[in-house]
Amino acid sequence: MKQVTETSIDTNRDYAEITMVNGKKLISLCTSRVYDSQVFGFIKTMGEMLQKENCALMIFTINSDIYWEEDINPAETYVFDIIPYAETDCILIMDEKIKSHSVSNRIISKAKKAGVPVVVVDGEYEGTTRVNFDYEAGFEQITRHIIEDHHAKHPHMMAGLRDNVFSDRRIDIFKKVLAENNIAFNDTMLSYGDFWADPTRTAMEEIIKRDTLPDAIICANDIMAINVNDMLQLAGIDVPGQVMVSGFDGIEEVFFTTPKIASCSCDTILLAEAAAECAIKIANGETVSDKYITPQLIPNESCGCPEHLWNVHNLMTNFNNNFYRHQDDTRILYNIASNMEISKTAWEMASNIHNHKTKHSLTVVDRNVFRTDSNIFMNEAAERNTPDLHLINDADYAEEHRFEKLPLTEELFYDPTVNTEENVLSGNFRARIIELLDRGYPLIFHALDYMNRPFGFNCYYYPEYVVTDYSRAAIVTNSISMGIGGFVNLQYQKCLLQKMDNMYKHDALTGLYNRIGFLKVYDELRGISDNQGKDVTIIMSDLDGLKYINDNFGHAHGDKSITAVANALKKACPSDALCARFGGDELFSVILGKCDAEDIIRKIDLDLEEYNRKANLPYTVSTSCGAYHSSFDAGFDFLKSLKIADERMYEAKSKKDYPHA
Questions:
Q1: Cα angle at 644 between 643 and 647, to 5 degrees?
Q2: Which end of the chain is flanked by fewer CB atoms within 10 Å, N or C?
Q3: What is the DSSP letter of 384?
Q4: How far apart are CA 259 and CA 146, in angstroms?
């Protein structure tokens, strides 16, 4: 039976400022591992209750446990930064699921700044409403059951971590019950299993060596109880005949041990109901109270009670689902990620996301990842560009246009607007998210990250509560993250290779082809059959008075003058002309097709006149040019033609008077 105690707390919120999104109040739930049976049950219960009260539920989740390591800040916790704090009516934090005080405090700080009330589920933080199990009352129940109902005279306690508040409180309760039953406590009655398997088994090795065994081992959680039971039976000790065993917190595994473990159930459904009630009150502007739920005693075989099956049929179904689910998911999602990585364009990459395994999802990405001039995954975090979150794939749209392989319309995909708001109700996806909220089921948000750098999020809009969908979401997110990250890395590598290739083929001073680059492209042109027989023109250009400029003004001025002539040559020639510098100040261009060489030379001279006018230098930059026309056929001799153009250039140069002053 549900037992709840309440303590009134004011939320200090100005309810006149509560906003509604499309007529609905918004509740944001922060948690971890939504496919965990307890979390899934919590979500389903809460979602159904909120839907009846015209509230929309958005779930922001990570897919791994941080285990209270406060110096760890995984990129996936970015998902808690994209909560639309300004439009959320209440934030719920499942603290024991996230397992990080620093992350929970970060959420609370952002909520406080936005004036949003926070309900902490299974945790305690100043300035928040608490919905917790009364662990002390529950642990006292199971302890009294072993000592008072089963008359244990020499009990032992397997505590959790040393100096841990939860463990210490349970030790105090153990001592209290002992004292009330006239059993003297001493240190030999206490071991530490650190709430986990290996430390428990190590502690049990020492207990089993004792001359006199305890008649009961009361454990601070079920994981330790399961391992205590196992170690006793491996040693040939009968449970409960020689030693009774009890756990605490009622995890599903206790119903599948032999014997089944006595425990105390911390029923997540009751927690969800209490949390939903708080959220609904807050959304309606009501004052809320802390709520404490007393866990329910589960007597069972390990303490000598009759078998208690609880809800084994449903539990077995869940286990089977966990075991058999998505036999082919890994293979299919690997192929999706691979196809994304090798795509030629971002649009093609996004189209490869679409698959029956990725249905009911949106993908939103910071488009800075698609810049080819840098790689955000390799930059320092401080170098991060202003975010620009945009929708790149919508499974519903992709399904409608699956034969065209379109993730979105071109207009939406290449939307030129910049979205710097960085929350899930912003940018060109806001209207779509609101539309999905109207369907009545929770929206689930996962951060996309690669090399521990967040770069967007995935939103899942499943049309019903199915745990296999919730489980699949985690591996879909991982595959899409890997696919986009791999695509970005490959594109960046191609960009670097292109830059290296350009450096290899182009003259560093002028940007024209060098000898290697020119000959490579020239050979390619010679190999194209359609070019055979075309007109070909070679224009040779040589800077006038280079020695005078170098000797009197320095080589830097000489280099600038060469560059000015190279720019003039390139601008005057057709865009497909091959312009090259083999060395020194001699530049040339090879033009396929009909052209007016004299007109090109005039344009070069006019360009340099304009350069001299603007530069206002103490010398004049000019060039002498020579041209040669021929046919680009089998008999065309490039070197001979270049020599003729060079001779004509020197004829033009000889008619000029140097140096220019």
A1: 85
A2: N
A3: P
A4: 16
Name the token pair of 196: 């986990």
The string of pLDDT tens digits covering residues 183-209 is 999 999 999 999 999 999 999 999 999
Cα-based distances in Å from 217 to 170, 176, 232, 259: 13, 16, 10, 14
The token pair at 401 is 């246009």
d(CA 216, CA 151): 10
Query: Hey, which CATH number is domain 515-654, 3.40.50.1100, 3.30.479.30, 3.30.70.270, 3.40.630.30?
Result: 3.30.70.270
pLDDT at 433 over 60: yes
In the DSSP assignment, the letter for residue 146 is I
Q: Which CATH class is domain 135-265?
A: alpha beta
12: its two tokens: 């200090």
Instruction: Read off the amino acid at residue 97.
Output: K
The CATH number of the structural domain formed by 4-132+268-292 is: 3.40.50.2300
Residue of 197 and 403 predicted with greater confidence: 197
Measured in whole angstroms, how far is the alpha carbon of residue 656 from the centre of its chain?
A: 67
Helices (H), 115-192: 135-144, 165-180
Return d(Cα 116, Cα 110) in angstroms, integer: 9
Using a 10 angstrom Cβ sphere, with 0-12 exposed, 13-18 middle and 19 or more buried, the burial of residue 60 is buried
Alpha-carbon distance values, 129 to 30, 92, 94, 107, 293 (Å) = 15, 9, 12, 14, 14
pLDDT tens-digit map of 300-355: 999 999 998 755 545 555 545 544 455 568 889 999 999 999 999 999 999 999 99
Encoded tokens for 50: 């909120």
Domain boundaries, the chain: 4-132+268-292, 135-265, 330-441+448-457+473-501, 515-654
